[in-house]
Structures are given as structure tokens and as C-alpha cells.
Amino acid sequence: MAQHGTGKEAFRSHGRGKKPNRNGNPARQRRAEYPDSETGERDDAYGLISVLYHALQGAETYTQYVADAERAGDEALVQFFTECRSEEAQRAARAKELLANRLDTLEDGDDEDGG
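-> C-alpha cells emitted (115 positions)
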């Protein structure tokens, strides 16, 4: 049977010789699209939407992990992944609340301006 390298060796060799793709960085792309974001409004909304999206995706992923652990009969993992899912759900709810508050504030400002 062939022996494979340890996890550390595999990690170290991953991506060796490849030049990082600077254009693939979403934050860098966003900065290029909004170079004059001095007010921070676009960055705040983007950040909250990103956190909301990733928290919801994480919660969905943890739901699958919970199901897998339940099928395996591993109660410790069921509890751990359930806690992780709950944390992601709380994070998503908080991001949603913060985003809604900021959108309401923007809308109220438009009403005052007659817009």
C-alpha cells in the first residue's frame, strides 16, 4: 500500500508554484469599483450583506453536518454542530437587523429630502 505524506506536507505543497491571483480577491475588486467610499456606506452595506450571506450558508452547511453526525450516532458531534448552527443563525439575525436599521435610516433621509 502506498504511503501518502502527512497532512502538514500536503498543506505545504498545496498551491506551490502558483502565483496568487490578485484580481480574484473580492475585497480588492470592490475597492476598485468604489474607490471613493469615504462615507463608508457602500462598505458597511457590503460587509453586512456578506456576513449575512456567509452566516446563512454556514448554518445550512452545519445542518448537513448535524444530519451526518446523527446518522453516525455521534451525539457529541450532533451537539457541537448544532451549537455552530445556532451561532451562525444568531450572527445572520444580527446582520439582518443591522442592515435593516441602516436601510431604514437611508430611506428616512430620502423622505426628508423630498425624494
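Residues 1-21 have pLDDT under 50 and may be disordered.
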